[in-house]
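SECTION: protein entry
WANTED: fold as C-alpha cells:
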Amino acid sequence: MFADEPFADSFGVRGAPGMSPAVLSLVTVLQFTENLTDRQAAEAARDGLSWKCALGMELTDTGFDFTVLSKFRARITGHGRERTVFDRLVDHCRTEGLIGAGGRQRTDSTHVISAVRDLNRLELAGESVRAALEALAVAVAAPAWLASQADVAEFAHRYGPGVNGWTMPSSQAKRDRLAQVFAQDGYAIVRVAWEADAPVWIRGVEAVQILRQVLVQI
C-alpha cells in the first residue's frame, strides 16, 4: 500500500536520491500511532527492531536525520499530497475487511500530518526553554540573577530531563496545556531578560535569543 509512484510529481529527478517517500509515509503513520516527535521517530527507526522490520531496513542501517520528516511533510503538503498516503492505507484496510465502509477513518486520516507536526513544535518549544535555562545556569553571574527573577527549583523540576526524551501527552487537551506551560515559562524568561534593569549581556546569550525567535514563530 506504500509506494513511491503516487508521489513522483512531488519530487525532483535531478541531484542525489533522497529517502523513499513510501518509507517516509510508513514512518509518519507509525509516528502518529505511537505519538512520537520527529526526533523520537528517527530514533525508533534507527534503534527499534520492530520498526526496522516494518520498514524493511537492514539491522545495520543507521537510519536518517530527524529533519527529513519535517521536510517530507512540507513537500507533500506543498504539492497537495497529504491525503495520498492515508487514503491508500484506508482503501487497503477496507479491501482486507479490517474496517467497514464509511466511518471516521477517511476524515481522520487528514489530521495525521497536522498531529505529528504539532508534536514536533511542542518539543521544539520545550527544548528551547530548557536550553535557555541551561545556558543561564552555567553562565558567569547568571545563576544569581536567574534566582532573583524566577522559581529556579520549579524550573529545575520541569526542565531537568531533556524534553526530547519525554513521552508526549496523548490527548489534545493535555498537549494544549503543556504548550501553554512552555509558552508561559518561555515568555517569563524573555520578559525579564529584556527589562531595563536586566544585565545587557543576558540578551546576548544565544539560547535566549533562539528562545525568543521560537516563541514568535510558534
